[in-house]
Amino acid sequence: MTLYDELKARGLIKQVTNEEEISRMINSGKAVFYIGFDPTADSLHVGHFMALSFMKRLQMAGNKPIALVGGGTGMIGDPSGRTDLRDMMTVETIQHHCECFKKQMSKFIDFSEGKALMVNNADWLLGLNYIEFLREYGGAFSVNKMLSAECYKSRMEKGLSFLEFNYMILQSYDFFELYKRYDCNMQFGGDDQWSNMLSGTELIRKKLGKDAHALTITLLLNSEGDKMGKTAKGAVWLDENKTSPFDFYQYWRNVADADVINCLKMLTFLPMELIWEMDTWSGEKLNGAKETLAFELTALIHGTDVAEKVHDTSKELFKSGGSVDMPAVELTDEDFDEGGKIDILALLVKSGLCPSRGEARRNVDQGGVEVDGKPVSVISESFSKKNCEGAGIVVKRGKKNFCRVYYNN
């Protein structure tokens, strides 16, 4: 199976401009491609997971990814999928978000010399002269064609500002600049970006007389057609300070039965043969597929050690009859002694499971306290900062009182 065939088998490819040429370049490791990321927050989220995994797959086969951060276009805002105007961000905020992005992207992409690039479109967009830009490139865009694009239709009902109307032009110009600067011959993106991507290939053809290509990646949807990556608490973030490794693991552990195989195919790097075998599982056995999904994705984002700890904590919690929606308390440096430890009594009070150290002592003496499923029998037992990092530890008092206590350095 070629790489392109595998991408299709995993359900990752939605639309392409020239399948024969795109598959040839990808399979031979000759593709120089980019995916854009708008810095609208200080962390990437599950919605970006698909693109990052896609970039990793292609880089592993010798292709060169370019991660384009929209420091320039982020000052306008992409109208795609929006019914309202995005909040305007300062240059300082955008730069901070870009720095956070690179740190998270490095878990997927090897940015060492010659392997990949991360560039910011502010480098060429912020210095443009408006009149010169209009004279040079304005004639390459048809307003009638732009207004027919899906990315503008939802905004037309409430009113599309001229500010947002420029987004397609600037994204097209990004592709044009990347082609000239880095020989970037492909743009990949979400299915909602198709019109913008086609506009970019057309600009390159008109101004440079060259062929460039576009491919859209299937959006990550659940079996009901809704975008995945949202919970009652909000987005599922890749930053552990915004979504803890425990909560991240639990999100994937609790996907619907109808979605688990699709997520395994699209997001993990497990062999297709193994996933096809899991596709024959049902009932209780399917929970094993969900645990595999949760472990693989948590390991990819937070590392294998953290994934193993979260997995063990989750197993102990379910074994004890606890709920994944249990309260969580974050520890600070002040909660630890000079040796960097916190004793069980302090943990019980800090977690809110006991109102005082005296009550905590009685619970320990009576054998009613557990940490990560293991009984605590002595009041002198303590835990280090390292014990509490990542997913943290689950403290239990009695049969039904749980709290996850964690520390982020």
Descriptive account of the structure:
The chain is of the alpha/beta class and 409 residues long. The protein contains 19 helices and 15 strands. The radius of gyration is 25 Å and the shape is elongated. Residues 81-86 have low confidence and may be disordered.
What best-fitting shape do the alpha-carbon axes yield? elongated
- N→C terminal distance: 44 Å
Helix content: 40-55%
> Which ranges are low-confidence, i.e. pLDDT below 50, for 5 or more consecutive residues?
81-86
By secondary-structure content and strand pairing, the structural class works out as alpha/beta
Round the mean pLDDT to the nearest integer and report it.
Answer: 87
Strand content: 5-15%
Total number of helical segments?
19
Rg for CA atoms = 25 Å
Strand order of the largest sheet: 1-6-5-2-3-4
Give me the count of strands: 15
Biggest β-sheet description: 6 strands, mixed
